[in-house]
Amino acid sequence: MKKFVLSFVFALSAISTQAQDIFNAARTNNVAELKTLVTNKVDINQENQRGFTPLILAVYNNSTEAVNFLIEQGANINAQDKSGNNALMGAIFKGYKNMVALLINAKADVNQLNGNNASALIFASTFGNAEMIKMLLDAGADKSLKDSSGKTALDHAKLQENTEVIKLLQ
Questions:
Q1: Mean pLDDT over residues 145-168, rounded?
Q2: How many angstroms separate the CA atoms of 94 and 145, rounded?
Q3: I want to staple 96 with a disulfide (CB 3.0 to 4.6 A). Which of 66, 91, 116, 151 is the partner?
């Protein structure tokens, strides 16, 4: 019985270690480690204590190769953290145009809403990023969506007094 309990504790410890490893590998763009973990059947869609998946962390850290690998392995591209933010919103927040393009090409939902009912387009408008707004609009982003305060992306652009973004959203 003692051996069984020790084996069980060791197995739980190994699972916990592998769970941490997948987040670190995603964050640091360590595709070799990600491949090993996937081979060992580690869940690529698990969440850490903040609700971040390995894909969200890889995007947030601009780990392009890790993002590509995780998407190829079937990572949930529209997974949301505890605030309802997804990888696309994270890429916009960080200003990573390459990640925005990659996620849009991988069919990320450009109209998914976070916990404040904000869409990726509202994020891009708030940050005044015209290039990302063009990419989102080309991918079918809905300009009429309103956040929890009742504001559209255009309303946020007007608050920022960003004439270039206002023109794009009118």
A1: 97
A2: 22
A3: 91
